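User: structure tokens for TolC family outer membrane protein, please.
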Amino acid sequence: MTGQASGHRYQRQEQSSPNVGTPDMCIVSWLLPFGLAALVAIVAVSPGSAETLSGALARAYGANPQLNAQRAQVRVVDETVPQALSGYRPRAQLQADGGAQFQRERSRERRSAISGVDGEEELTAQIKRTQRQSTLPRGAELSFEQNLFDGGRTRNSVSQAEVQVLAARETLRNSEQNVLLDAATAYMDVLRDQAVLDLQRTNVKLLEETLYRARERYAAGEVTRTDIAQAEARLASGRAQVNLAAANLNTSRARYRQLIGSEPRSLTPGTPVADKLLPRSAADGMRTALSQHPAIAAALHGVNAAELEVRVVKSALYPAVGLVASISQRYDSEARGDRMRAGSSTLQVTVPIYEGGEIYSRTRQAKESASQRRAEAEVVRDEVRAALSTSWSVLETAKAQIESAQTQIRTSEIVLTGVREEARVGRRTTLDVLNAQQDLLNARVNLATAQRDRVVASYALLLATGRLSARRLGLAVQVYEPTQHSDQVKNLWGGLDTPTGR
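Assistant: Done. Predicted tokens:
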């Protein structure tokens, strides 16, 4: 049994940064302070109507269809325990029958008579007799069977079912981790793509203003036709970037609806997982992951279940002892009005001698399956190790990228101011200003992306350690307890309704 160790993969269209530039100082000064804080403020509204990251995760935890389906699967596996326990319990059945029987019997009787002294005259007669009889044969039989010894089959089947329940719970815990990570990623993707779209729209407005002023300066003889063409080309590119950003946002919104179950409206800024929940070092995280990750636990339970299957199959080679008892009542069995009551109690001993080699083959097959599960458990361990290393590196990289982007923004602002002043005295061209402005905008987009990556990477690292859960995150939800259903059905001897009443 394998589990998804970390595995969140997200693909989107590559978003190139816009080209922005203007020779007008008021326009440049207006865009310069337009940093990441302003981007985040675009999607922030009044606290009363805003959606938080923890609120979105709580919504996904309670309503995600994939997660609810996995919970139902655990309840399905829970029922295997009472099914295995049924091997210890008696079995009883009642059989009844009834019908009509008609019997008609014909017989012939020959009689002879002799008259005369000499015996010359003989008289022969035949007499026909007919007998009719109808009965209503009916009856009922109540039989009981009780297993006394089956070579350990029932005992091992119960143990195997209990191990499979534990494996299903760990698989559910792993699914919860992945759903929470997917939901956090979808939340941050919407925030990032909304911010990028607003940047692109602002960029188009600035480029339109730049083109307008370039035409004014061209009319005054200050610039050439080349400057106008450059501004027009950048404006066309900027409009294309707006369309691309809108498409990326629509994709992220659709993903959000799929995972969280509602429209992404009024999202507040997301924050990374608290440092106290994350490992202090990569080595510490690796130890935690190898000992606590649910994917590894599920795989190890799968190994145990496969080893128990070997014992279950092998038990067919051992003798079996059982008790069989029955009581019956019959009417009209032989003639109308008769009654017959019978009862029996038998101790049956079955000793298998040779069954054609089937059980031997199935035993060898079960052993190979156990070897396969052990190999798969090693694969899962390797996946968890790789996921932990990757998540740790991504988080550290995102932190470094944030610092780099912030430094790039500060220096790009200085460069843009200098290029703008040099352009005023004729030492720089319009293209130089446009390029400098694009560098600044690229840095701001990179910062927004790095902030998103840091939040997502923190959740991915918590998942890689096996600790990403609603309880650990403190979500305002009623935590699903899989043990409740298992305890309710484990010792049930009958009943068609589920514990929920269905």
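User: Anything notable?

Assistant: DSSP finds 13 helices and six strands in the chain.
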